[in-house]
Amino acid sequence: MDSQNTLPINKLLVAEDNESNFLLVMTILKRDYQIIHALDGLEAIQKYRQYSPDAILMDLKMPNMDGLEATREIRKLNTCIPIIVVSAFAFDSDKQEASAAGCTDYLTKPIDARLLKETLKKYLS
């Protein structure tokens, strides 16, 4: 028997306003995670409270509330949940700002499927 099938499936909150980016993440991760989608930072905070996910993938540029502000708010509720930025912004200043806001790690778009899976596994195992 494959012991992997007996493990509880991790819940992953994906805060991403772009439908095609979300669908890509969904396609890469749907076999291994229960995916919860938030369209902006405000919804990310609300769904974080509602579903208590095991990790968060956070876009930075979103309507209503950006990913950094949402991260700061979620950090007030939980200081140790992995919050991994998935963003098209790749400058060191963006990475430093994300780190200062409380983000755990930083991946750049276009998404590398193997790196995304490895990064999540690193924080969830």
TrEMBL record:
PROSITE patterns: RESPONSE_REGULATORY. The modification 4-aspartylphosphate is found at D59. InterPro entries: 2C_system_His_kinase, CheY-like_superfamily, Sig_transdc_resp-reg_receiver. One of its GO terms (biological process) is phosphorelay signal transduction system. The keyword Phosphoprotein applies. Keywords: Phosphoprotein. Pfam families: Response_reg. Residues 11-124 form the Response regulatory domain. This is CheY-like chemotaxis protein. It comes from Butyricimonas faecihominis. The lineage of its organism: Bacteria, Pseudomonadati, Bacteroidota, Bacteroidia, Bacteroidales.
